[in-house]
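Lecture 7, part B: from sequences to assemblies.

Below are the input chains for today's worked example.
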Amino acid sequence: MTNRDNTLDWFMLVLRRDLTLSFRRSATYITPLIFFLIVVTFFPLALGPSQSLLGSLAAGIIWISALLSSLLAVEGIFSEDYRDGTLDQYFVSSEPVFILIFAKVLCHWLVCGAPIILASILSSIFLYLPSGALFALIISLLLGTLFMSLLGALGAALALGKSAILSAIIVLPFSIPTLLMGTAIMSAAVNQQDYSGFLSIMGAMLAVGIPGLCLLTVEAILLNYE
Amino acid sequence: MSRIKNWLIAMGSPPHFYKWATSSLPWLAGLAVIVFCVGLTWGIGFSPTDYKQGDVYRIIYIHVPSAILAESIYIFMAISGFISMVWRAKIAGMLINSAAPIGAGFTLVALLTGSIWGKPTWGTWWVWDARLTSTLILFFLYAAIIGLHSSIENKTKGDRAVAILAVLGVVIVPIIKKSVDWWQTLHQPSTFTLTSSPSMSPEMYLPLLVCVLGFYCLFIFMLTNSLRGEIISRERDKSWVKKQFFKY
Amino acid sequence: MLDSLQLLFIMDGKGPYVWACLLILIIVIFINLIIPVIRLKRIYREETLEE
Amino acid sequence: MSNILKVKNLNCRRSGEEVLQGLSFTLEAGKNLEIIGSNGSGKTTVLRSLLGFVNDHDGGVYWNDSEVSSTFQEGDVSCFYQGHQIAVKPLLTTYENLKFSSSGFNSSLEEITLIAKKIGLKHFLNRQSSSLSAGQKKRIAIGRWLLKDFNLYMIDEPFTALDDEGIELIEDIVRELNNKGASFLITGHRPSGLNSNKIYLDVKNDK
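Predicted structure of the full complex, as structure tokens:
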């Protein structure tokens, strides 16, 4: 049953299904985006509009806002499918659960992480980020938000059927390494130093994280079925 | 007086409004296009050059009408929200839902054009100036309304939830504006504004007026167009839609 | 005539700013106008496909 | 005839409390079994215990004439499960609800159209399910049974929210699938008109 063609079909099916559902309900991709922009706006309101001050804080502000907003929609990755019986049916069918989880994480990242990256370009103008650091910002957020989606899925699986904020609290402590790496890349880029070392550490984290965290998420989901 | 009242009540019913909208859409479109084009051509092509900013000031003919519309559409939404809360008029609820994306669009135009105008004038794309900041917050309010409505599956319930938010917003918006002004003076006493000269010459002022008028006409056209779609998609199972729209 | 058009287009080097603004305006208006039309088309297609 | 499922002396608990004791039955290929009982008698718990969704039970569960007792595992039998929640998404169309289900991803448009015709939803194929009634949504769920050939269908209360026509539809489909050798394990409040063995459960009132 699980030859390679079928597995790919199965992956594409879940991905297409989740993307269709997300696009039908525009709140799923607008909410994290607007949340991100509002949080970014609050910093100048609180700290004052001074260009030099904001410019030096920009990278940190954007990174924190991106982390928080990518966790916003994380609860919905599994909760709806859990409540309406879709997960029951998927688990009884002999298709691999791992693929299901990975497709769902990827969908969350496409719907939630990718718009945030676009918005971060906009907010780098709002916050007077030195323009030389823009590329580093995009590439670090690209890796960082994907990692956050993986972590978020694990949190959502552990807190399945419980309060939405719980999954965020579970995940936030574990996101510290990502935050540190991201800001390290950014400060190196702002000071025009080489940041490829940090970048490869982040890539390595991701390379371990994709299979590792997905497997843990499978375990966590199946916990709800025992 | 009673004729106006009767007309308004009749317009409150979806089939009647749909009929009216279908027959008057071409007229509305024509009017909007004419006034809009006249205003913009006059403003961008024929009004005199500003002695301080040069030609770049011509963005005013796009920026100011958009900003005015951004705020008036919000007020309009709040009024229809109030109507839908008090009289439970179906159309009023749909009006908010149709006006929100248009308002958000004009707010976006106001923000982007303000930002583009800022680049040659201030030397930077974005300044946390009082007017830009409160427009940005207005944009977030629009986004909140659109997001709330799209996340509620029952559209009638969604209308009511959004009406509450719109009414709350119209109370909050002046407070936001005042507090942003206060925040601005707190941080930097000398503010610079885009509209440099306080007294504009009539050659510059008149096309601006026409532009504002044209934008309003355009809004009415866009609103009717979008409300028509909204009505059909909400009432697609009613018999009058089957007869008038699907023709069977 | 052509010269004056060119002058209008360039606007002392500030032309791109003005025309970019106009372009944004037109795009936003166009999107807002086309979405209801697409929606109606979709509904129409759905209903007539049901034969 | 081979046994698809044999259950010997099954005891199930729900949050630590025993809901039923000593359940035994055998289910042959192509035959049906109904578990009938009132609310709280443990019908759902039996199904979920057999599938391993709830692991608070003991007793013998033998799949496909196997000698070893185990809960449902991949590869034992091809099984379709439909719980109380029927997994029909309001934002997806009828077509998408069928296509994107666990059994439908290999089905073509023609096959799905044929199924939609069979369940009486052909006119709603491209319509989002939010505008369908509860009974029509249930019909979509029934349509999923036909997407792939399964050996065993475990259906929790298939007859609720259906009109007489819908009940007839289920009976027709069950008969058709029985002829192909598939078995049904069904729960319900009262016996249905299906040709099946029936087991009656009682609510335990030990208080």
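Note for the exam: Chain D has five helices and eight strands. Keep this in mind when comparing with the next example.
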